Amino acid sequence: ELLQVSTLHSLLELRKCPEFEKNPVALQVDLIMVDEASMVDIKMMALLLSSLKVGGRLVLIGDSNQLPPVEAGTPFRDFLKSNQSGIEITVLEANQRLESNQLLLLASLVKDGKTGSVVELLKEQSDSLSWKELKFEELSKKQRMLLLDELALPFIQMALVSKKPLEVSKEFLSHRILTPQKKGVLGVEQINEQLLKRVLQKH
After folding, report:
1. What is the per-residue pLDDT for 29?
2. Where are the alpha helices (DSSP H) in the chain?
3. Which candidate in 13, 33, 80, 172 could, as Cys together with 59 as Cys, close a disulfide (CB 3.0–4.6 Å)?
4. What 3-state DSSP class applies to 177?
5. Which of 171, 169, 179 is closest to 203 using CA atoms?
6. What are phi and psi of 31, to 5 degrees?
7. In angstroms, how far is the first alpha carbon of the chain from the final one?
């Protein structure tokens, strides 16, 4: 049969059967593959395992360093640490989607909590990474606008030659200025929103 794609909730018929825990769905399939497995909580994993038929195989795909479950438990991470027989673990070490080795190194340093090394790497400056140290909250409104123009310069130049605002905004939205905060003057949302406005004003 052809491969079928669904959410775990649909697969396990959780919305149809609130008494699922008492009457597990019997999944008559030979193989189940679960992507983003780090987000599966302990209750959902238990329900999934109890639904497998005898001889059925379960393949979990994910990254234990990415988003954890919203509910309790981290079964995917626990499986990776387990030495129980019957659990086979394969680790992919080569990233085929990212060409920049510096970005990979940066992600690894952030994951390991090596803040000093993170700052040193950022200060090296490259095509992939840049570092600008300033006190944004102490800048005047005019100085902030000048800074935003500098950050948005590549997109502003594109806006000046392009006749299609949609293309400009699409290209801009494929990039992101990152800050430690989400909200406020220094927040990711406000800075990127202001940058997009500056770009479109120049069009």
Report:
1. 83
2. 8-11, 42-51, 75-81, 101-111, 115-123, 141-151, 153-161, 165-173, 188-202
3. 33
4. coil
5. 169
6. -145, 130
7. 53
